[in-house]
Structure formats: structure tokens, C-alpha cells
Design goal:
There is one protein chain. The chain has 333 residues and is of the alpha/beta class. It has one domain: TIM Barrel. 29% of the residues lie in helices and 17% in strands. The protein is built from ten helices and 14 strands. A twelve-stranded mixed beta sheet has the order 9-10-11-8-7-6-5-4-3-12-13-14. It has a two-stranded antiparallel ribbon with strand order 1-2.
Length: 333
């Protein structure tokens, strides 16, 4: 039996945080993620059903030590069965922490139902609180809907509401203090994320990326940041108190200050592939054996083997680094 095993790699890291992509589809067209015309979506028959998703999560939770499950996309709110998937995941034994990464479009209509289903919290992607800049980045005029969705999540108790922002050079790199003021005013937890090489167009350039050092410098023009007292652990964000607290801001320096040595994450794509790293170029297929009648034990063993191949780091600084074939929308965050 596999029961009692963990998802360990060769470097002593153990995955306890599962990111589950529910769809590769999205209702925004963020410039750093996909082209304006969108992408060719996964064929419907390759996408895991609700039952298949819950079964694989159950295997992870019951047999392999998964303690946290985060649903991602594309945009997970476009998945019709989302509320039921959340409820069924929360009902597993042992019950995992369940969160959602979303662009918040439609969240104002679903936040209460998600909270009732057992969702613990949400992370929302929002790169600007200026309507014009939001439209430039997302190619959609939907800022008011996103803001309303974030407020609804906060009101429904899906807290702490974390807001993830990416700064783009020449677009919104002058708006870091403004974003932080807005988040602090509303009681949201802001996290700046360095832009990563996961765009469908493969246009990412390190020279054009706004670095963590630049983010700190921009915030220092208006705020005093001091390292937060709580240890970072395996969390990707370096946390800082703002002007002595209690408000905080985080910076996720995935590129310039990689935290691969503490990584505790594993990913399941919408079409049933295990990815042991966000930047992995190899995947391990669980969908085919699942649909061929494999037992839970057999699927768990495949998952264990998939994790053993995890590399020591993402290798972005290596001259031989190649961007994953799948863009972020098809991987899940």
C-alpha cells in the first residue's frame, strides 16, 4: 500500500500544497499571459471531469499527505462545477485548506456560495486600480467588476483576501505605492510578483522585468518597510510590515530571489498531468491510467514517481533555460 507515503523529491522537499487547474480558459487577455485573440483551448474530452478531479485530490489528501488545495485556471470561476468541487474537496478526510486564485470576474455573484461550500480564502490577480491601465493590461474594461468581486469575497469571510500584482515596465511600474495604499485602505493583503517567463507569446525578457529591488525602491518613496516577524517558511512571499504595521506587503521574487529550496508545491493540470515544478518541461500523465481503470494505489504510486524527478531549481538563470511549452493559463498558478 502507498498509504503513508509522501510526495518527496531527491532533495528532501515534500509537496503538501496541491495546485489544481480546473480549466485553461480565461475571460481576460492579460498581455503578459496570452495574445489578444486568445489561445486554442484544450479539447473538452481531455479535461478532467468533476468526479475525476475530486478523486485525484482525494488520493493526494488521503494517501500522499496533501494538506492544502488551491484551485486555479485559466480562470476557475468559468468552471461550472466549481462550487460543488470545492464542497466535495472540503469534505475529504482529512479536510484540506481550500483556496482559489481568480481574476474575480463574477466573484461578486459566487463569493457567498463558495464560502458556504467551505472555501477558506481567495487570491485575486489585479495589476492596477486605474481603469485605463487595467484595460491596457487585460484588454477588457472590467475593473469595476473585479473590485466588486474582491469586496464580495472580503464580505463573505474569504479572508485574508490576497491581491497579486505584476508590474510591467512602462505600463504600471509607477503605480506600486498607489496599489499598496488602496490595499491597506480596504484591508487586503497585497503581494507584488516578479513577471515570470510563462507567457504564451514567449516574449518575456529579463531586462524588461521589474525586479524586486525596483519594487522595494518604489515603495520606499512613500512607505517604511520592515521585515515581518513571522518566518517565511515555504511561503513564496517575503513579508514586510508597512510603517510599523499592522498592514503588510509581500514581494514574490521568483526570478531574482528564487525560493526553490523551500518549495512544497505540486501541480495538476486541467487535463490530468502532474507538474512537479511551475517551469517543468516534463509532465506525468494521470488521466490515461485513471480512465483505464487504475486503482487509487496505482495512481498514487505514479504520482510519487513523478515527484522524484523534480529538479533542484527552476533554472531561469541557466543559459540553457527553456520556457515551458505550456503558458501559465494552461498550467495553473
Amino acid at each position: 500500500m502507498v498509504t503513508g507515503q509522501v510526495l518527496a523529491d531527491r532533495y528532501g522537499r515534500v509537496a503538501t500544497d496541491l495546485r489544481v487547474s480546473l480549466t485553461d480558459r480565461c475571460n481576460l487577455r492579460c498581455s503578459y499571459c496570452m495574445p489578444a485573440e486568445g489561445l486554442e483551448w484544450l479539447p473538452d474530452d481531455t479535461v478532467l471531469t468533476d468526479d475525476e478531479i475530486v478523486r485525484l485530490i482525494d488520493i493526494g489528501v488521503r494517501l500522499l499527505g496533501i494538506r492544502e488545495v488551491r484551485f486555479t485556471g485559466g480562470e476557475p470561476l468559468v468552471r461550472r462545477g466549481l462550487v460543488d468541487i470545492v464542497a466535495r474537496t472540503k469534505a475529504l478526510s482529512p479536510s484540506p485548506e481550500v483556496s482559489l486564485t481568480t481574476n474575480a470576474l463574477g466573484l461578486s455573484r459566487t463569493a457567498a456560495a463558495l464560502a458556504e461550500a467551505g472555501l477558506d480564502r481567495v487570491n485575486v490577480s489585479l495589476d492596477s486600480v486605474r481603469a485605463e491601465t487595467f484595460h491596457t493590461i487585460t484588454r477588457r474594461d472590467r475593473l469595476d467588476d473585479v473590485v466588486a468581486g474582491i469586496a464580495a469575497a472580503h464580505a463573505a469571510g474569504l479572508t485574508p483576501v490576497k491581491v497579486n500584482a505584476v508590474l510591467l515596465r512602462g505600463v504600471n511600474d509607477d503605480q506600486a505605492p498607489e496599489l499598496l495604499r488602496w490595499a491597506l485602505t480596504h484591508g487586503y493583503h497585497l503581494r507584488f510578483i516578479e513577471q515570470m517567463p510563462l507567457d504564451a507569446q514567449h516574449d518575456w525578457s529579463r531586462a524588461e522585468m521589474v525586479t524586486a529591488d525596483e519594487i522595494f525602491a518604489a515603495l520606499a518613496t512613500e512607505f517604511t518597510l520592515t521585515p515581518a516577524a513571522e518566518p517565511r517558511g515555504s511561503a513564496p512571499a517575503e513579508l514586510f510590515q508597512v510603517d510599523g504595521g499592522p498592514g503588510t506587503v509581500g514581494v514574490i521574487a521568483s526570478v531574482t530571489r528564487p525560493f526553490c529550496g523551500d518549495c512544497d508545491r505540486v501541480r495538476l493540470t486541467a487535463d490530468g498531468q502532474v507538474r512537479n515544478c511551475l517551469f517543468a518541461r516534463e509532465e506525468s500523465d494521470l488521466r490515461t491510467p485513471l480512465r483505464a481503470g487504475a486503482s487509487d494505489t496505482e495512481l498514487a504510486q505514479r504520482w510519487v514517481v513523478a515527484m522524484r524527478g523534480k529538479r533542484a531549481g527552476h533554472g531561469i538563470d541557466d543559459p540553457t533555460f527553456l520556457q515551458p511549452d505550456r503558458p501559465m493559463s494552461a498550467i495553473g498558478g
